[in-house]
Amino acid sequence: MSLTVSEYPRTEASGVAPGSGSLPRVRRGWRLFFFFSSAMLLTGLVALLFADLLWRTGWSTSSTILLGLFVILFLLTAVGCMSAIFGFVLRTFGDTRRITHLAEYRSRTIEGTSTALVFPIHNEEVGRVYEGLRATYESLKNTGQLARFDFFILSDSTEIDKWLEEERCWFDLIRDLNALGRIYYRRRTFQESKKSGNIRDFLNTWGRRYRYFIVFDADSMMRGETIVDLVKLMEVHPSVGLIQTVPALVNAESCFGRIQQFANRLYAPVFITGLNFWAQSFGNYWGHNAIIRTDPFMQCCDLPQLPGVKPFGGQILSHDFVEAALLLKENWQVWLAYDLEGSYEETPQGIIENARRDRRWCQGNLQHGVVLFVRGLRGISRIHLLLGIFGYLASPLWLLFLLTFNWTLWFKEQTGLSDITVRAWTPFIKLNGTQHAFLVFVICMCVLFLPKLLALLDLAVQRHRRRAFGGLRRAAASTLVETVFSALHAPLQMLWHSRFVATILFGIGVHWGPQKRMADGLAWSSAIREHWQHTLIGLGWGAIVWRIDPRTFWWFVPVVAGMVLSVPLSVFTSRSSWGTRARSLGLFLTPEEVCPPPEIAGLRIRVAALEKSIKAARRSPDSGMAEAILDPYLNAIHVSLLREKQLNPDYNAELAKLGVGQPRVRALGEKLLVEGPDALQPETRLLVLSDADTLTWLHRQAWVRPSATLAPWWQTAIRQYASS
Question: Pick from 597, 632, 650: which residue ends a domain?
């Protein structure tokens, strides 16, 4: 079965045909061949050693399964290792085939350009989103180029209090920044197709006004100079449809967050440079912190509905990989500006929250198994999609490998087969069975950990980077601790990802809710509730292996240790106090911590003050609705935004479909006053708050009616408002 992608009339950018100026196909093909041939050659050699080891101990059906799984898992590891090797070589001797080096762009003017900076949000921590926008706005203003950019907050929030808080904070923001007519707010009435639908709705309404747009995540931000550089790069390269930056992780407070942040900043440069070696102008898109040429995106990237039922069919969840593939399909270039600094995002602050994010990503990536067969996609796009799929399939394959190995041990124990090994059939092996097995193990460990060593060597040869990480000694100590933590965390990820894949294969979808982004530590009760199964699996698995073969058990300790210690590991690494302690010891330092840029420093101060205010404020349920009705200031903001929405014919149709403007809405408003919010269902409350005339009427009635005629909830709300 194959899919067809919607075809659109081609529009050329700046008079240049899409695809012009790209690298010669022969050279790009040579890079692809050389890179993946190296990974496959390494895999073939080690697989030969492993197959010989299996042969020496007696071949069986389980040996065939083990060899097949080993080849797949080692190939994935080899691709990562080769990325680090190629990246290290290029960073040492210079990489001339990166988009920032292909043409002089810094002197290019952006006169006459227009760029939209869009912030799609869905029930997010409103204050954090707006502070990130503020930091980006002020940084961009300092460049003197602010007039060529507009900001859009694109809300898909369904929680009433979040919606109303977004409006209030938006107006406060434009008042503080004097940014009326520069920062816009829009909330969709119908949240169709999640983030991709949110952006598509924006483009259908306002897209033609802007030559480019930059997508942000709820926790991301960018430096003003970086944004201007991205526009200049697009101007210099008219055949480029998308440029993806590499966001640096910042502002982590918990121990887990700081470990992730350190690993991102230390290891990513060598990996991403290696990725750019073979991807070149056929890069990928990660969904945010990227600049996109509006016209080709609108023409090429209207996502199709996948055939079949959910979770594999229907709407494409991980839309970014697919959108990049569709741009490449139409000969638009996609680049990775990996050396462009000033792009930032934040990371989950705990192991459990990180796993919840992985659950959402897992379903979206597995959907790409259907997209792989779309007609007309380029082969390199299929490679990107395939690597994303195996990013999650690797865990159940690893679990299956371990279980098969355990079953082989048990079978040998039950049957009483001898441990005597035969001679190796590879002529270069002159080792006994134990030495042979140890050789395979050492090679696997070298391939697994070589990227970390190369990252440290890369740091050692760059003096300014060494200082940014607190010195080579501290970076090396941090790498050692991070490696130990990763070894404990990897088995937990294996179990989680295996469960995610299994539930998806059985047709169980996932709710894509907001991510918890601020660190406040994990309670022991929550950790036990989330990890008790992991602990029991670790204890039971370890006991079984010990019963089968005590010698093998000690080799198996790294696998079961993370499971057995999952509860304390999750609790302690989620605490900001442990993160603070690690920083005082000089562990997990990053450039943005050692010498923070002004944007990050200012954001930290404001977010810290925001967290204190959130903890101090004790808001009751439906307090946002009470403020929107009682407060004349907030009521006027809300009503004015609703009336502006009614000027759009498309929104008028949506509002009519929802029921806004009908007499029953006024009746619901009356019921709200007389009986209180609990008398209405959440969807009817949304309906009332979407009707401008009813909101104006409710504001007046709440203040002019005698107190005795109002519900007790309203009497309390009015007293609290009057005393505040």
Answer: 597
Q: Contact, 322 vs 378, CB < 8 A?
A: no
> 627-654 b/e with 16+ CB inside 10 Å = b?
bbbbbeebbebbbebbeebeeeeebeeb
Q: How far apart are CA 296 and CA 376, in angstroms?
A: 17
| Cα dihedral across residues 412, 414, 419, 422: positive or negative | negative
Taking 80 as the threshold, does the pLDDT of residue 224 lie above it? yes
**Distance, CA of 522 to CA of 699 (rounded, Å):** 41
Q: Residue 463: helix, strand or coil by DSSP? A: helix
Shared domain check, 251 and 346:
yes
- Cis, bond preceding 348 (omega within 30 deg of 0): no
Whole-angstrom Cα distance, residue 228 to residue 109?
10
Given a contact cutoff of 8 angstroms between Cβ atoms, the answer to whether 501 and 524 are in contact is no
Q: How far is CA 5 from the centre of its chain?
A: 26
Q: What single DSSP character describes residue 119?
A: E
Verify that 192 and 331 share a domain, yes or no: no
- Give the pLDDT confidence score for residue 189 in this predicted structure: 81
Contact 42, 322 (CB under 8 A): no
Residues 449 and 375 in one domain: yes
pLDDT tens digits, one per residue of 322-373: 999 999 999 999 999 999 999 999 999 999 999 999 988 898 899 898 899 8
221 by Cβ neighbours in 10 Å (0-12 / 13-18 / 19+) ranks as buried
Neighbours of 30 (CB within 10 A): 12
* Residue with the two structure tokens 């190995």: 405
Same structural domain, 282 and 192:
no
Tally of CB atoms within 10 A around 312: 18
Q: Which residues contact 616 (CB under 8 A, 6 or more apart)?
A: none
207 and 69 part of one domain: no
Gap between the Cα atoms of 686 and 159, Å rounded: 9
Q: Which 8-state DSSP code applies to residue 5? A: P
CA distance linking residue 299 with residue 571, whole number of Å = 48
Q: 518, 349 in Cβ contact below 8 A?
A: yes
Domain that includes residue 199, residue range:
113-220
CA–CA distance from 668 to each of 158, 163, 387, 626 (Å)? Answer: 19, 20, 52, 15
The answer on 123 and 26 residing in a single domain is: no
Expressed in percent and rounded to 5, the helix, strand and coil fractions of the chain are: 65, 5, 30
Which tens digits make up the pLDDT trace of 376-430?
Answer: 999 999 999 999 999 999 999 999 999 999 998 888 877 766 655 666 666 667 7
pLDDT at 414: 77
Residue at a domain's end among 169, 186, 220: 220
Question: CA–CA separation, 141 vs 217, rounded Å?
Answer: 20
- Coil/strand/helix, residue 376: coil
The tally of domains found in the chain comes to 3
Query: What is the spatial distance between Cα 694 and Cα 667, in angstroms, rounded to a whole number?
Result: 9
pLDDT tens sequence across 288-307:
999 999 999 999 998 878 88
DSSP states along 515-575: PP-S-----HHHHHHHHHHHHHHHHHHHHHHHHH-HHHHHHHHHHHHHHHTHHHHHHHHT-
